[in-house]
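[Automated response] Your request has been received and processed.

Submitted sequence:
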Amino acid sequence: MNELTNEENSSSYEKSYKDLEKENVELKKLVEYQRNEIDKIIEQRTRELIDLVETKDKFYRIIAHELRNPFNSILGFLDLLLKNLQDYDLNEIEKFLTIIYRSTNVSFELLVSLSEWLNAQSGGVVFKPENANINQLLSDAILSAQLSAEKKQIQIINNISHDFVAFIDRNMISTVFRNLINNAIKFTNSKGKIEITAKESDKFIEISVKDTGIGLSIESISKIFELNGLNSTRGTAQETGTGLGLQLCKEFIEIEGGEIWVESILGHGSEFKFTVPNSYKKQ
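Generated structure:
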């Protein structure tokens, strides 16, 4: 009886040992899994931190470079006017003031874009979607760009129906329209044309801003919405810029739940397209 008990005890101990060993193996697997997950989180946070630092450095470079140039121009021409005002006729003064105005406008637009983009990055932008008339928002954006278009004799055509309603944040889409139109004006030659159209599906409205401008290379298309793709490419009338407005468009359209992309052939114009949710009642 004692021998049987000892055998049973031995078998019980052996079973317990195997169970413990199995649990130990499972525990090691769990620890390894958790370690891998922690490593992934650390790697992701490290990448995010690196991206944040690179973004900060990028904006420092943009501010230092892009604001220095127009302000140098503004200060230089103001200095000439102040010191030699009596020596210039009205045509020369008008020429200087036009240059000063353009330089000031470039600086202002850059500051506005920087402010809006940084607000989006920091979560400072409040997203308030509502049913809004697309045609009206576009008409307002065209009006704000009319002076720039007239200077280059560029025709802007609004082909969006008056009854197109989307479920959007008005301020965000107004900013997108403004940036895409200004970008199209910048890269369209004198007497060119910009046409804005829209088509509707069950859930989305696809909007197109098409120009007869200089177009984009394949390499430029692949980088145009990337932060690292920002550059200071000059427009057809030597307008300056950073590409930040397009990055802002991407941020806002993604917040809206849509997509943005560009179709272009170098020398044959560009067509920027984006989608926004259809009116709320159709969701």
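Summary generated for your ticket: The chain is about 60% helix and 15% strand. Residues 2-84 form the longest helix (83 residues).
If you did not submit this request, please reply to this message.
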